[in-house]
Amino acid sequence: MVKLIFFDIDGTLVTQQNKIPSSTKKAIRQLKEKGIVPIIATGRAPVLLEEIRKELEIDSFVAMNGQYIMLEGKVFYKNPLEYETVDKLVQFAAIEKDGVVLCTEDEILGNSIAQIMRRGSLLKVLRGIGEFIPGTIIFQIARKVRHRAVKEEIYRDKTIYQVIIQAQEEKDAHYRSKFPDLHFTRANRFGMDVISEGMSKAAAIEKILTVYSVTSDETVAFGDGLNDVEMLKFVGRGVAMGNGHEAAKNAAYLTADTANNDGIYKALKELKIL
Length: 274
What we know:
single chain, alpha/beta, Rossmann fold, Hypothetical Protein, Haloacid Dehalogenase-like Hydrolase, Chain: A, domain 2, 2 domains, eight-stranded mixed sheet, about 35% helix, globular
């Protein structure tokens, strides 16, 4: 019997138009009625998933690819990066002229588009057109601001859990070779999520299983990106979204329809969970 179901956000719970389908909201309600616990598992920082949590009434989540876990409204696990590691990453990204986003528990810092969007005017503009603005346009906007080096004083006394490097995929191997003690993954083609070695959504789920006294066979996960691959392999049945990366689909037990086309609800029906 399935007891826990983990859901990625972008491209899974949320469509490319930044909407949560009504069928997905219905599915979450029905899971709760059956006593199945829905848990968000995302690369996002906690501050960037509050609205979605509230809309779906989900109080448990894995954030920043496993670096931070909240269960039933209470912090369960924190795994911040060491200051020296963050500083070296920031300095190296500056040399490479790549944008940087630093994720704390409740702040987004840095010189890339995600950080700029948190600061007033541009956020207001993009909130109005965000449902339609292509990711490539965001990437071009980001290029105009990412060359400004991140000042050390803005993160010196901060607890950083995840660093996002805005760089194209061909740079992945270059960064990995320079920082072999860190784990690099991607939710999309625009940036690398950098976390502690050995951490992932799957590693976080393994910690959560002990709390609920369940086995991996009693879990299901939905995801679409490269940062979901470990999770989809670890759970009893991994479900990749039809709009997902091929690596996610190859790792999954089932490939669902797209997020835009009621993929979550249909897959839960196909698996006879609903």
